[in-house]
Structures are given as C-alpha cells and as structure tokens.
C-alpha cells in the first residue's frame, strides 16, 4: 500500500507544480500588459494623446488619484477629465520626458486585481519654464474589466527625508 500512496503523492506534487508554473507564466504576460498600461498613463502627455490616457483609467466615480499636495486629490473620472482638459491639454503645458524604474507589479490570486509601485521622474514645461518631479514614489491599483486592465487608484508622493536634504544650508542644517 505504501508504494501506491507514494506514487499518488508524487503525481499530485508534479501536477501542482505544473499548475503553479503555468500560473506564473500567465501572470508574467499579464504583468507586461499592466506595465504598458501604467507607462501609458504617464507617457500619454508627450503627444497629448488623451485617448491613450483615458483608455488606461477606470472611467467611473470610483477612480481615485492622490497628488503630493492636498489640492491635487482627484475623486472620480469626470474630475480627472476636467483636470486633463483644463491643465494638461493647455498650450501652457508641455511634457518633455519621463523615466520609470524599480517597477514592482503584483497580482491577486484570482488574477483580476493588480497593484504596483515604482519610482518616477516626470519632466515638463509650464509657460516655458521647466517643471519636474524627481524620485517620485508612484503606487496604484488596477482592475481587469471586460478583459482590459485599467487603473482605479494612483498615488504620487515624495519622501520627506529627501525634502529635508534639499532644504539644508551649506552648514548641513
């Protein structure tokens, strides 16, 4: 009886490991798609491609976006659409480049929800003057809806210890 139990255990182990590998491979493909959606949500500005941006986001009242300052909190897609139309699409604003690194993407066990963290440098001009966000911490949540990944929540912040370093005078105070 023991050899049969051992054989059953080995077969179960092999089948289980195979399904884990297949799930990881599936998630790697999903992660590549998610990575593209995340990058599109920032890269759209280089060409002011609103359709690319809006296609990356959940277009409902649950969309939520935290900026580093309190005035930049956006609740709902329509509020974000207004921000886009009345700020980013103005001639006064021009995106000039961005860099994303240290991207980490995780998926729920069901494969229908993902969350990410990354670091971002975002460069632009406002009325001809350079603007930038450097070493920005960027996190968010995506949901797979109707077969497409969309961002439902984003959060941008700056490490407070970096800000303290920037404000020190020549004596280090």
Compact summary:
By secondary structure, the protein is of the alpha+beta class. 39% of the residues lie in helices and 35% in strands.
Shape: globular
Based on CA atoms alone, the radius of gyration comes out at 22 Å
Distance from N terminus to C terminus (CA atoms, Å) equals 76 Å
The helix/strand series, from N terminus to C terminus, equals HHEEHEEEEH
Structure write-up:
The chain is an alpha+beta fold. The chain has a single domain, classed as Nuclear Transport Factor 2, Chain: A (Roll). The protein is 39% helix and 35% strand. Strands 2-1-6-5-4-3 form a 6-stranded mixed beta sheet. A hairpin with a 2-residue loop joins strand 4 and strand 5. The protein is globular.
Secondary structure layout:
Blueprint: H1 2-43, H2 50-55, E1 64-66, E2 74-75, H3 77-88, E3 93-107, E4 113-126, E5 129-145, E6 148-157, H4 160-167
Parallel strand pairs: 1-6
Antiparallel strand pairs: 1-2, 3-4, 4-5, 5-6
Relevant terms:
173 residues, alpha+beta, six-stranded mixed β-sheet, 4 helices, disordered C terminus, 6 strands, Nuclear Transport Factor 2, Chain: A
């Amino acid at each position: 009886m023991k050899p049969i139990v051992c054989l059953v255990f080995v077969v179960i182990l092999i089948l289980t490991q195979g399904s884990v590998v297949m799930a990881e491979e599936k998630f790697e493909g999903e992660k590549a798609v998610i990575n593209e959606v995340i990058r599109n949500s920032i890269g759209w500005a280089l060409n002011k491609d609103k359709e690319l941006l809006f296609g990356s986001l959940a277009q409902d009242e649950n969309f939520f976006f935290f900026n580093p300052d309190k005035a930049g909190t956006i609740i709902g897609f329509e509020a974000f659409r207004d921000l886009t139309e009345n700020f980013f699409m103005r001639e006064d604003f021009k995106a000039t480049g961005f860099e994303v690194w240290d991207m980490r993407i995780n998926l729920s066990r069901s494969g229908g929800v993902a969350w990410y963290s990354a670091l971002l440098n975002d460069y632009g001009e406002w009325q001809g003057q350079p603007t930038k966000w450097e070493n920005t911490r960027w996190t968010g949540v995506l949901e797979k809806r109707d077969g497409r990944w969309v961002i439902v929540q984003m959060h941008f912040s700056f490490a407070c210890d970096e800000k303290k370093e920037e404000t020190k005078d020549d004596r280090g105070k």
